[in-house]
Structure formats: structure tokens, C-alpha cells
Specification:
The protein is α/β, with parallel strands linked by helices and about 500 residues long. The protein has four domains: about 160 residues, Spo0b-associated Gtp-binding Protein, Chain: A (Distorted Sandwich), CATH 2.70.210; about 180 residues, P-loop containing nucleotide triphosphate hydrolases (Rossmann fold, 3-Layer(aba) Sandwich); about 100 residues, GTP-binding protein OBG, C-terminal domain (GMP Synthetase, Chain A, domain 3), CATH 3.30.300; about 30 residues. Helix content is about 25%, strand content about 20%. It has a six-stranded mixed sheet with strand order 10-11-9-12-13-14, sandwiched between helices. Strands 3-1-8-5-6 form a five-stranded mixed sheet. The radius of gyration is 40 Å and the shape is elongated. InterPro entries: G_OBG (IPR031167), GTP-bd (IPR006073), GTP-bd_Obg/CgtA (IPR014100), GTP-bd_prot_GTP1/OBG_C_sf (IPR036346), GTP1-OBG_CS (IPR006074), GTP1_OBG_dom (IPR006169), GTP1_OBG_dom_sf (IPR036726), OBG_GTPase (IPR045086).
């Protein structure tokens, strides 16, 4: 039965933004009193919160799909839609959040830290918010944008000051149970500990945490035993304690050979960039089980060799509690020294926040294939504006054209070599495909047209010069024919009159 999980994949879906409303206020004696469509509500976020009361990712192992609420639609009478309900997911302190590519998004190392893993969609503006002196009664509203949807990976790295490492059955669990209130599983067979255990130790005025890491064996870096699966939990530790079994009955094993194997496995573990390698951190040696006479003799024998190699050595017994006080106070000194160094360390470099206008808001990429060249526009604003556009409404499409023109998209397409009628795609993948016509970027706000329509999309009825010339000649020819007919009728009438006179 699974009781400890330190790696999970979360399938998150943030809430969608609500659509804006198209409405015109109607009152007595004021049938068209102006637009009053409300805005749509924003979609709910999915937020990860570092909670000290949570110690495992087990709940997300069983229920990895989490979704936030959608925003409500805007309504008439300037009523905005309700915001979507966000959800907060508590995770253990020390959880690392990664994206699908394996890049670290955030490291939740402090209690109470919050990270918006899936931002909700933006609510669309109603026609009341889109009205201005030139567009007094918009016949369209903006649609809500979809929320973020995808996978994030959670990886738990235990936050502890001291890590106990050693072979299976070396007495690590017994040691953490003897020096703290932790009650890990203890048995007389290897690999009793299947997940890290945490304990809090008080040594004088110093309080620190100790992590019991599952046992390592030779070849762990190649996948033997539990491998290096749980060594990520010692990455944040200040000091390492090598717990060596002086009473082992396995042939070919002794404290010195066990230590060499553990050091080799620790050296094979790559720590993240910027962190101190495991073997460069303070290391202490605890010769365990000295309550056994043969183990005591062996500890006395190997202690000089270990001290000659630069280790501080403590002979301990978790049964008789011999040497535990000296070990805990030595660890307290190491932890206190490290904390003092962190307090005296220079402050982190200041983060420079650049204004949004300092970076290019979109890019134009020329692509092509067997079907010809097309131009792809990439950027947060153009993609969001396309998502907000109702393409069944001509006025909304004209508004999109004006926004893209003000952003400088037309100029960028000209510089990229685009010609009228070229295929333009906005967004990744299939995206939205347009036949680009620069003439659509004229000032729509000064045009007078019924609500919901844009005269730029209507067929042009203006005659060309050749058509006007042809029509002029047709009129002149018709007038000449009419004069000729009148003249012929006059001459015929005059001839009949002369005959009557004779």
C-alpha cells in the first residue's frame, strides 16, 4: 500500500473567462439610451500553496486532475459576470514545480509561498466598456479567453538540516527515533525504511531537523536496491551523518569499506547547479551499536583511521543512548554556524523589472512549404485578441483589425515581405488564418454604420473611371438618338403639312 509519494504529475485546467454582453439600455421615452452591456468574469486560478501540515503528495497521486471554476457571462444593466472560483492545492514545503520540458518553475521552500500554476482566462469586455466618443454604441463585445490547461510536475525534496545516510539496517531509523519524537518503522531486515522520515532535535538553544534517508548499497547509482531515488531529499541538508554499523554480520563488510561505498555513491549523485556538492558539505561519522562488545572493539580500531581522513567520529548506541548527546550538540554547532553564515551572506542581487513596452510584443515568422509562403504572428497580445473576437460579427472583426494595426502588425508584415492577399496565421499550430488586406486597417472608429456591421467588409459600389466614362458615353449616345428621333418626327410632320396645303 502506497503511503509516501514524492513525485506526481498534475493535470490542471484553469477557469475560462466569461463573455462580455451586448446590450442597449431602454427606458421610458428613451428607447436607445446607450450601451449597458457588462463585462464577463475572470476564470479561476489554480494555486499551489506550501503548507507545513502536508508531508506527502499522496492525495495528488490518487486525484491528479484539478480544475478551477469558469467566469460568468456579463449581463445588461452594467452587470458584470461572477469571477470563477479559484482552487488552492496545499503541497509540502520543499516541493519543486516543473513544466512539461523539465524546467523548474518555482521552488516552494518557505511555508506559505504561493504559485499560480494555471492562470485563469480573462473575462471579455461588454459593449459599455468598449464605447468611446467615436464609437458611441458598439454592436459587439469581447469573448472570454480560455484558461491555461496542461501538466505540471511536482517533486518533493525534504527540507532538513541534517541527513542520515548509510547502509540498510545500519540503525538510521533507530537513531532518529532516539534523538527526536519521530517514530519510524524499525525492524531487523534490510530496506525497512521506504521513504524519508523527519525528526526535530533540540540541542541546547539550537533546534534543527533530521532526515532519515532509505539505505544505500554498492551499485545504487546503477539502480540497485532503492538506487539514488531518495537522495534528492538530502540536497537541501546542511550536514551529512554517516551511520556505520559496527556489529554487522555480513561477510566482507566493515565500517571503512561501508564508508567508501557510501562516499562513492554520493559522489555519483549530481546536485542542481548552484548547490554545494554533497561531499563538500560538513560530514560526521557515527559508529553505531557500540553497546555490543565486539562492535565496541571494532569502533575503537577504526576510529583513528577515520579521524586521520578528517572526519569527526562519534561512538553511539541507540539502545544505551551512549554518545547521543555529544552527537546532537556537535550537529547543533554545525547547523548554527551555517545559519550564521547565511545571515551574514550578501543580499541577493536586485531583480530588474522591465516595463512591458521595453520588449517586443509580437514577432513575425516567415514559413513555407509545398503550398506556398505564409506569415505567422506570435505574441501574447495578438493571440489573446484573436481569442476575444467574435468572427460572426463584422464590427468585432474590424475592431480586431484596428487593434492589430495600432500594435504595428501591418508594418511588420510589410517589412517581412508580405503582399496583399498573403496568408497570415496568428498563433502556434493551426491558429487563425487570414488573407491579409492592408486596407482593412483604416480608421473604423470614424465610420458610420449600423451596429454589428463594418463598411470595410461590404462590397464596394464606387464606380471606376472607365465605368464613369462608359456610362457618360452611353448617356450622350442615348441623347443623340433621342434628338435624332425627334428631328425625324418633326420632319415627317412638316412633310404631311405641306401635302395638305397643296
Amino acid at each position: 500500500m502506497v503511503t509516501f509519494v514524492d513525485r506526481v504529475t498534475l493535470h490542471l485546467r484553469a477557469g475560462k473567462g466569461g463573455n462580455g454582453c451586448v446590450s442597449v439600455r431602454r427606458e421610458k421615452f428613451k428607447p436607445l439610451a446607450g450601451p449597458d452591456g457588462g463585462n464577463g468574469g475572470h476564470g479561476g486560478d489554480v494555486v499551489l500553496v506550501a503548507d507545513p501540515q502536508v508531508t506527502t503528495l499522496l492525495s495528488y497521486h490518487h486525484s491528479p486532475h484539478r480544475a478551477a471554476g469558469n467566469g460568468g457571462f456579463g449581463m445588461g444593466d452594467n452587470r458584470s459576470g461572477a469571477a470563477g472560483e479559484p482552487i488552492e492545492l496545499p503541497v509540502p514545503v520543499g516541493t519543486v514545480v516543473k513544466d512539461a520540458a523539465g524546467e523548474v518553475l518555482v521552488d516552494l521552500i518557505e511555508p506559505g509561498m504561493r504559485f499560480v500554476a494555471a492562470p485563469g482566462g480573462q473575462g471579455g469586455l461588454g459593449n459599455a466598456a468598449l464605447a468611446n466618443p467615436k464609437r458611441k454604441a458598439p454592436g459587439f463585445a469581447l469573448l472570454g479567453t480560455p484558461g491555461w490547461e496542461g501538466d505540471v510536475y511536482l517533486e518533493l525534496k525534504t527540507v532538513a538540516d541534517v541527513a542520515l545516510v548509510g547502509f540498510p539496517s545500519a540503525g538510521k531509523s533507530s537513531l532518529i527515533a532516539a534523538v527526536s519524537a519521530a517514530r519510524p518503522k524499525i525492524a531487523d531486515y534490510p530496506f525497512t525504511t521506504l521513504h524519508p522520515n523527519l525528526g526535530v532535535v533540540q540541542a541546547g538553544d539550537v533546534r534543527f531537523t533530521v532526515a532519515d534517508v532509505p539505505g544505500l548499497i554498492e551499485g545504487a547509482s546503477d539502480g540497485k536496491g532503492l538506487g539514488l531515488e531518495f537522495l534528492r531529499h538530502v540536497e537541501r541538508c546542511t550536514a551529512l551523518v554517516h551511520v556505520l554499523d559496527c556489529a554487522t554480520l555480513d561477510p566482507g563488510r566493515d565500517p571503512l569499506s561501508d564508508l567508501d561505498v557510501i562516499l562513492a555513491e554520493l559522489a555519483a549523485y549530481p546536485v542542481p547547479e548552484g548547490q554545494t556538492p554533497l561531499l563538500d558539505r560538513p560530514q560526521l561519522v557515527a559508529l553505531n551499536k557500540v553497546d555490543v562488545p565486539e562492535a565496541k572493539d571494532l569502533a575503537d580500531l577504526v576510529r583513528p583511521d577515520l579521524e586521520a581522513r578528517g572526519f569527526r567520529v562519534f561512538e553511539i548506541s541507540t539502545v544505551s543512548r551512549e554518545g547521543l548527546r555529544q552527537l546532537t550538540f556537535a550537529l547543533g554547532d554545525v547547523v548554527a554556524t551555517h545559519r550564521a553564515e547565511l545571515a551574514d551572506a550578501p543580499a541577493a542581487p536586485r531583480v530588474v523589472i522591465r516595463p512591458k513596452g521595453a520588449e517586443r510584443e509580437f514577432t513575425v515568422r516567415v514559413e513555407g512549404g509545398s503550398y506556398g509562403t505564409y506569415y505567422r504572428i506570435l505574441g501574447d497580445k495578438p493571440v489573446r485578441w484573436v481569442q476575444q473576437t467574435d468572427f460572426q460579427n463584422e464590427e468585432a472583426v474590424g475592431f480586431l483589425a484596428d487593434r492589430l494595426d495600432k500594435l504595428g502588425v501591418d508594418d511588420a508584415l510589410f517589412r517581412a515581405g508580405a503582399t496583399p492577399g498573403a496568408a497570415v496565421v496568428i498563433g502556434e499550430g493551426d491558429g487563425i488564418v487570414f488573407d491579409w488586406e492592408p486596407s482593412l486597417s483604416s480608421a473604423a472608429e470614424v465610420m458610420v454604420a449600423p451596429r454589428g456591421t463594418d463598411p470595410r467588409f461590404a462590397p464596394s459600389n464606387r464606380r471606376t473611371s472607365s465605368q464613369r466614362r462608359e456610362q457618360y458615353h452611353e448617356r450622350m449616345d442615348a441623347k443623340a438618338e433621342a434628338r435624332a428621333e425627334l428631328e425625324a418626327e418633326r420632319l415627317a410632320q412638316q412633310g404631311r403639312t405641306d401635302e395638305d396645303d397643296r
